[in-house]
Specification:
The protein contains four helices and two strands, in the order H-H-H-E-E-H. The chain is mainly alpha-helical. The chain has a domain of 31 residues. The protein has a two-stranded antiparallel ribbon with strand order 1-2. A hairpin with a 5-residue loop joins strand 1 and strand 2.
Amino acid sequence: MKTTIDLPDALIQQAKQRALQQKRTLKDLIADYIRQGLKGTSLSAMPAASSLVETDATGLPLIRSTSAPTVHTVPNALQLEQDLLQTHELTDHHTWDDGHPD
């Protein structure tokens, strides 16, 4: 099924980056995220955002994460940048599988 959804540009860029990192299509990545969301944890079972943010001794915010950090090496970061630049050059706007701009 094809559909058009209006999503924030920053969210689409993050999804495109994740798809490139995982060497997957944007369509497959988003479909998996929707499946996970539909079967996953209810919003009421998720920790409140305020419980993940603390203030350290300097007064700066300290954000706790429940997942392991992503480690990027310089060569990986450069390759990701090149992939994103190439993707951006190929499309002037975001499109879904059906060709409609989002």
